[in-house]
Amino acid sequence: MSHRPICIIGNANLDLVCGPLDDWPERGTETFLPRSDLRIGGSAANTALVLQRLGARGGLVSAAGADAAGRMLAARFQGTLDRVAVIEAPTSVTVGLLHPDAERTFLSTDGHLDLLDLGFFLSQLEDWSVEGALVLVSGAFAMPGLLKDHMELLSVLKEAGAEVAIDPGWPGTDWAEDVREQALEWIALADHVLMNDKEALGLARAGDLDAACAFFDAELAAGRRLVIKCGKNGALALSGGTAVSASARPLTVFDTVGAGDAFNAGYLEAVARGLALVPALKAGVAVAGRVIAEFPRTSLPIALEAGEG
């Protein structure tokens, strides 16, 4: 079990993942897909669920809507460190369509996530002592009510003594200049910046990861870490001007939805146990591989082997 508590703040919704789908159906027709999985989703909730499977001392701070989907969501987060409020709104839902070339298409509804703002999260954290804890703020771009005050939330957490990680995800407006400036402010404050390779390239406006790392090296404060998740190519990290990496084992995977969130769980759990950067990267890659190899996803415990962190 991890020695430091881990607080996951952010989005939780209901996911329906199905496929594979070759071509978009003609209007007015019906298409039958061979596989589906109805499950809890949202980047923060995904990470919190994997932390449960790792036996970590963690909890989710989020919300669910006041409907059947929300009751399903809230029921999974009843631990002593979970703070999942039920609010009077429909639960946000995402349909993930999987394609044979490993690409994915997401269709998401507006819902309760639009109502989550700074005041909501601060009220949920009133009895959550984050001093000395690892705190991940995940899915910022999926919560429009928090965007303008995201920096203030990070500042409050830092002032309370938390070690802060962020994984904002992909902005709905692409990396427009104002969005880019906002994200760079978050990066300047965070202790751990977790993003995937496409997000890193877009934010850095770089043509390759070497150029992206050179850009972020100038943005990171001393002692901070940038972690870039590279899918089947593993992960790399930049800290103190030095880049390190961890490779992934080959996998035949049907469903990669939530791979980066599972990586976050493995990485943070390793950091909470006091592991150094490279073993933490290896743990993140190994945990992500275990999770995405499953379909449908399970809640069975995950135990890492020697050399996996």
Automatic annotation (TrEMBL):
One of its GO terms (molecular function) is kinase activity. It comes from Nitratireductor thuwali. The keyword Nucleotidyltransferase does not apply. Belongs to the carbohydrate kinase PfkB family. Keywords: Kinase, Transferase. Its EC number is 2.7.1.-. This is Sugar kinase YdjH. It comes from the Bacteria. InterPro entries: Carboh/pur_kinase_PfkB_CS, PfkB_dom, Ribo/fructo_kinase, Ribokinase-like. Coiled coil: none annotated. The gene is ydjH_1. The keyword NAD does not apply.
